[in-house]
Amino acid sequence: MSSFTLYNYVLSGNCYKVRLMAALLGVEYDTVAVDFYPGFEHRSEPMLALNPSGTLPILTADDMVLTETQAMLGWLAAKFDPTGRWYPADDPVVSGEVLQWLGVASRLTGSVGAARLHAMLDWPVDGEAVRKDALKELQGFELLLTDRVFAGQTWLVGDHPTIADIACFPYVALSPDAGLEHDGFPAIRNWLYAVRSLPGFVTMPGIHQLHELREGAHG
Amino acid sequence: MSTLPVGLSRDLSAKRVMRATVGGQDLVVWRATNGEISAWDNRCPHRGMALSHGFVRGNTLACLYHGWHYNGAGTCTYIPAHPDLDPPATIRTNRFSVVEQDGVIWVRTDGEAQAPDLPGGLEPLRVFIVAASADQVQCGAAQVPYEGQMADAGAVLHFGAVSVMLLLSPLGDGRTQVTTLASAGLTVAQRSALSRWCEATRRHVEAQQEEAA
Ligand code: FES
Q: How high is the ipTM of this complex?
């Protein structure tokens, strides 16, 4: 029996967060493909009945409907990770740090995500303004990650990856889609590599498997 | 073009590949499994694709596109489509001279790289890019206080007991990569504060550019 249903659009970084988290936790689920572009199906009446805000992804499990991506990550970890390492909620400081990063993830989605939609789908926004905004967010993220490097740490919180890493990962990784390369961001580059090295890691268009970790690949 | 920093040794571990630029030259910089570092023109001799998308196999760099392997000498050692062929020695990458000194990776594109002798007591802090020329960064940095203190202008900025040195690499597109060194043995909190000073410097210099424009 599958444990939840994901209303999914394959090119969406937010939908990918949920697919990635589920894969890392080894959870099976059903997907319903939603034609976000060019069909705008997420704004259709049946979809709005399920999610009045008209966004993707949507996660349903029994009677529960979640429409906020970061909430889905928290639910997945709380439900399917008995070790509690992916969503450490016992210590107030640690829990505060995780939630803080989820806020950072939302800002990355709003800035890099918007710049990417503009670059890829010619979304009707001020391209120069969103790109500037996205660059500022990436610079801020690099600064915070560099603090982690100074502390000798790989992950955003503690010494194990958490939902914070998964929430921030896709839009940082996808920023080259918006013309924002990672060349000047060594801390970002190394953290992206660490996430991509996690056992069970899955890909999406624009985010590839690490070739060197493919078992038996010669080329 | 002189010998310029392209990054920090600590930011490129064994088996890793990065893209870098000096003076408009697009580079792939990679470290073999044995720790040896190479800096090449970022173009595969086969069809010219970016080698920075490639990956390290043992002590060779494999191009992502058709999987040709190149060893540290830049010589092609393996062509997947012709596994039994010994690739002709003429297939080589365009290599540049690279050295590692003081925790910094230095490259020279027109001769033998020779890292300058840096003042003692400094260690790498971080690397960042500013949308301004090297001169503008050098001038602007001396105008940004650290913990309320102004530094004397000079190659090394002294804020009381804390010293900072900026190594400037023009990227060739109006931007400058800044490799920052700071006094050795600082606490994590001090390094973190200096890292914020770097951000303040970037904002200050870029704001000056916008005003001037
Ligand atoms: S372009 Fe590099 S192997 Fe073909």
A: 0.95
Q: Is residue A218 part of a domain?
A: no
Q: Which atom of ligand 1 is nearest to the CA of B49?
A: 1
Nearest beta carbon to residue B62 from set A146, A187, A219: A219
Shared domain for A183 and A103, answered yes or no, is: yes
Distance CA B3, CA A23 (A): 46
Around Cβ A33, how many Cβ atoms within 10 Å? 11
Q: Residue B80's closest chain A neighbor by CA?
A: A219
pTM of the model: 0.95
Total of domains in chain A: 2
β-sheet bridge partners, residue A104: none
Ligand 1 in reach of B80 Cβ (< 6 A): no
What is the rounded distance in angstroms from the CA atom of residue A34 to the CA atom of residue A160? 33
DSSP one-letter string for B157-188:
EEETTEEEEEEEEE-SSS-EEEEEEEETT--H
Distance CA(B73)–CA(B62), nearest Å, equals 14
Distance from residue A20's CA to the centre of ligand 1 (Å): 30
Give φ, ψ of A182 to 5 degrees. -95, 5
Tens-digit pLDDT profile for residues A112-151:
999 998 988 877 788 889 999 999 999 999 999 999 999 9
Size of interface A-B (CB pairs under 8 A): 55
Check whether residue A16 and residue A96 sit in a common domain: no
Taking contacts as CB-CB distances below 8 angstroms, the residues of chain A near B15 are 212
